[in-house]
Amino acid sequence: xxxxxxxxxxxxxxxxxxxxxxxxxxxxxxxxxxxxxxxxxxxxxxxxxxxxxxxxxxxxxxxxxxxxxxxxxxxxxxxxxxxxxxxxxxxxxxxxxxxxxxxxxxxxxxxxxxxxxxxxxxxxxxxxxxxxxxxxxxxxxxxxxxxxxxxxxxxxxxxxxxxxxxxxxxxxxxxxxxxxxxxxxxxxxxxxxxxxxxxxxxxxxxxxxxxxxxxxxxxxxxxxxxxxxxxxxxxxxxxxxxxxxxxxxxxxxxxxxxxxxxxxxxxxxxxxxxxxxxxxxxxxxxxxxxxxxxxxxxxxxxxxxxxxxxxxxxxxxxxxxxxxxxxxxxxxxxxxxxxxxxxxxxxxxxxxxxxxxxxxxxxxxxxxxxxxxxxxxxxxxxxxxxxxxxxxxxxxxxxxxxxxxxxxxxxxxxxxxxxxxxxxxxxxxxxxxxxxxxxxxxxxxxxxxxxxxxxxxxxxxxxxxxxxxxxxxxxxxxxxxxxxxxxxxxxxxxxxxxxxxxxxxxxxxxxxxxxxxxxxxxxxxxxxxxxxxxx
Length: 535
Description:
The protein is an alpha+beta fold.
């Protein structure tokens, strides 16, 4: 234990010394270049806000923002690659791989404030607030100043590692706050489209990607080509006759791109509007030139919240076009099967590709159901052992998820059934056999969903019963205690009366007789309650 503690202190000393060296060097260069007194801490910001000179105030505030961001980036790299500079290798700590700009500002401001406090403490101990001066004194042989320098480096190392080690939590907090504020301004509902002409391209829902991007896969029995990810739509617009051409657009908020793809693949303007309406239920429309369908793809995010993604599919004679709200999907298995020519992909047409995409979405429902089922089992154990108010919130959350999934699965069953029974030449008889299998999977998913709904509904009754029983136990205990103390209180209250003549008051054993009477009453009461089976 002593070896590990010593090793951690040495690591903090090295990290703190390197950081303090860069910290002081950059602050000294900036002080000389800007000709203003700088400390590298939040004191620079306060000085800039209080300064009467507008030019110097702007310089100080700008310096503080740039320096805190730069120092945070340096601290992040020092912690991330600390194994290359730290002597002790037995310490392990995960570092957030991605830090947003907002998180950098928060982390930098925190370190700036902590180093300001450290400078104040150091000045109070040594009467010297300039760390550079402390280093010069240490070199000249002042061992007291050297000890202070070592102590400062160790504390600085703990500050750097402590702040950067919590970068992940800061990122989550800042992103969640950003989402809460962005929901109000960015999201639109169907009510916002009232009064617009039919076919008007308006994005209904929340924008899930910052920039729209495209991908394309072209394949047949002998050839395969892929454009993995591009922001230029023209790179994915080529169609090769005799091959299956799969185009994918990620991000449905851009009306220009949706219109361009719709015109290229002869998609009706109403269907283009449906692609941008993320609140639309799963639906199917069979036309002469193509088949258009809207599907829903549920999945869980990193925080365990269920996200319902809007998917648009267009099947043409020689092409399949898919529209997705966000990056990441369940189609990776389909792409891998195409790349490695597994199964019948290379020998089948676009209708088989549409089947494979629908099958991937339906199979993902089983993953969702399994996860909900595991949560249900854990909740059942908690309900029987120790139900809490938080448990009720989880139950209601699961009920909402089940309602959402039910609204998705039922219309998706109609979509798949409509594809199977369609007379369109775009759906071949060989593919209808596979669609029938997906339809059966959908029915199985619905049965599982109904079973989980009943279980969750029963869990709500179980929770209420458990809470009621727990309350009854508490009330029974309190009632028993009150029942025992009522006659005892009655006996004691007699001696609180104001009668002048009470014979037993003059008796030496009166007090002990009263206590014995109280004890006897308590025993009789306990025996009577036990005989009534109330205990």
